[in-house]
Every structure is written in structure tokens, then in C-alpha cells.
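Reopening this ticket.

The earlier resolution said the output was attached, but the attachment link was broken on my side. Pasting everything inline this time so it's all in one place.
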Amino acid sequence: MFEKILIANRGEIAVRIMRTCENLGISTIAIYSEADKESLHVKVADEAYLVGGPRVFESYLNMDKILEIAQICHVDAIHPGYGLLSENGEFARRCEEMGFVFIGPSPEVIVSMGNKIKARSIMQKAGVPVVPGISHPLGSVEEAVNEAEKIGYPIMLKASAGGGGIGMQLVRSSKEIHQAYESNQKRANSFFGNGVMYLEKYIENPRHIEVQLLADYEGNIVFLWERECSIQRRHQKVVEEAPSSFLDEQTRSRMGEVAVLAAKNIGYTNAGTIEFLVDQNKNFYFLEMNTRIQVEHPVTEEITGIDIVEQQIKISQGHSLPFTQKQVKREGHAIEARIYAEDPKTYYPSPGTISKLSLPHDEGVRHEIGVHANSTVTPFYDPMIAKLIVKGVNRQDAIEKIQTALNNYQIEGIKTNIPMLQKIVTHQVFIDGDTTTDFVKNHL
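Inline output:
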């Protein structure tokens, strides 16, 4: 059993990982920036160490300093959480070279799946359905024009190194493609230091449905059913639920089987997610693989009763999965709402000090939170500060619970997106389960 784990992250996911570590009797090491010295994850950890200045490249992306702290503290393993260094193959490799267990897949798999073009090509060869498009880098805007004409508009320009919805641009006609190519390449270079792009056919009004996987070192892989993540703003997920109300049992099982096939083909280990676009006829297409724990993992935990972080840790220790596919249950319905420190009218971040924080604690309500009363939300990091998760006996029960919980959720001192979330969960289209990735644009 690991005795000490360093969490190379911050905020609510760091607190979430620490909770499981405490349950397993594992000591936790937090890292924090100068801006985060009073943060909740610092207070919850057994030990906490300053890692650098307020900007992410000075602190949470500072591999040298993080690994130096890991050495000083004699940790057994490093958990990267999500975002930041979680899908950085170099960081995973350096952890292994210095004798720390990286709680995630191998560096080689991270690199392969992090390159969206390469991942698409690998999935095609494995027989996984992919969206019509190209599987090689675009060399110029002229090539993009030619390929778009072959595929047919609308198309989606995508950054090969993109993630989290960043580096994607919808193009509906040849008149738009020159400007879109230049702006998307500039954005990709800015965010990822890599302007390589490819393109795919844009599927109108799709659903975004993903399959959670767990894989051990003995080759056992199971899927923990699916999550519906169609409600998005600017390609960023806002509300997620499990299971999807759209899928029938045959399609649900087939998607799970395809996800397992994909993971087997690349020799995947630990927790991971295969994301699919699903059209109105329930045809599904590979979108990308996330080689880490997902923000929305709690809804899967709620319907399966499986602590995904615990399984990540145990797999990394060499344990085999304690259950087979047939033993993975599915019970009830869960919904998650992401709470952001942002102006609900403009979507701009809303930094400031939280003067009041009051959370509802009704039955079936769960919170994953990275702040406390008197916390200062800085402009340096992602503005998501908490997640509200509810579980009901069925979808209608879960909807009623999240409506009530959002009405009783109080944060003062900063603006939040709670008014927007209230509009979503009371909208008839959401209640009817007819949401697509265009829901926010079309209905809010």
C-alpha cells in the first residue's frame, strides 16, 4: 500500500483525491502557488508545500519544483488529477524515471492519445467508428479548402494538441475557412504551443456521450456505463448526467464494448474515458480519449457505487480489478452541475472574495468543492470552484433534487453561473431529455 501520495493539482479535484486517500490511510502532500496559500486543498492535506508564483507556469506546471518536493517528502506516487499536467507524457515519464508511481496510464499512451490526429488514426485501425474527416495534419489553408470541399460543409477545424473544447472552430462555408484557419491556428499555438490542425465533418445537433473505463495491468478492462455531457457552453461541459436518457440498452452495451476494444488496442491501464459524438439515429463516432480522471466522474460513482479514485490508486499499486463487467451495477440516476465563478450574463470570470457560502445538505446531494467562506477566487486559474451532484431513484427524482439544491445553494461576494444552471435544469427541453450540444446556444 502506498504510504504517501503527492497531488499535483489544486482546487476541488485535489480535495476529492485527498478524501479517498484518507479513507485508505494514505498521507497526502499538497502543492500550492503563492495565490493559493489559503486554499481549501492546502488546509485538507497532511502536508503542503509552496511550488511557485501565482501563474500556472510558475507553479502547477513547474515540473522541476513539483518533483523536487516529491523527492523531499519521499512520496510513493503522484496523482495528477485532471487538467494541468494530467495528460503530459513528459511529466509521467519523469515521475517514473525518478522512482515515483504516476497514477495514470503509461507515458507512451498519454502521448499517443494526446495527439488527436494520431489517436483518430489508431482508432480507425482498431475498427472504432470515427467522424468522417482526415487523419493527417493540414499543411496549409489551401489544403483545408480542398479537403473541406471533398467532405462537404459544415466542417470542424481542430487542433491536434487541443483539449477541453479549446482549439475547435466550426466552419459552415468556404467564405469562412481562411479566417477560421488563421484564427484557430493562432489560438492553438497560444494554448498548446502547437498549431497543427486537421478537420472533420461537423455533425449537426449531436449528443456528447462518453464511456468511463477502468483497466488493470492484467489486461482486465471494464466500462462503468456512460455519461451524457451534451449541455456545453463554447465546447465546455456545464451539466452532466448518468445514465443517458437517449440510449437504448443495445446501443449502450455496444458503445461500452467499442470503448473497451479501443482501450485494449492501445494497452491502456488505469482510469480513462472514450468520448463519442452520437447523432439522432444513435450512430456513434469516436471523438477523443481522455487519459485521466474526468471532472464529471462523480455521476458515474453515484450510479455504480465505485470509487474511481480508489480504483486508480489500487491499479497503480498492481491490484487487479475486484469486479467483472457483469458485476458493474447501474442504479438510479445522477446529475452534476459545474459551478463557476463567472458573470452569468457575460460568462466572464468573476474573481473576488467569497463572503458567504451555504450548501444544501439534503439526502442524495453531494458536493465537490475547492473553496470555503473567505476564500479568494483569483484570476489565475480555471473559474470552476465546485460541483453539485445529486442522485435520485430515477431521472425525474434527480431533476427535482438538483432544482431544489440549486435554489438553496448560496454564494455571496462573487458572481456565479448558478442562475444559468437554474435555467438549464428547469427548461422543458432538459426535462424531456432532448438536449444536444447546441442546447445552450439554441435555448438560452
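Reporter confirms the inline version is readable. The mean pLDDT is 95. The chain has three domains: 4-103, 132-201, 207-443.
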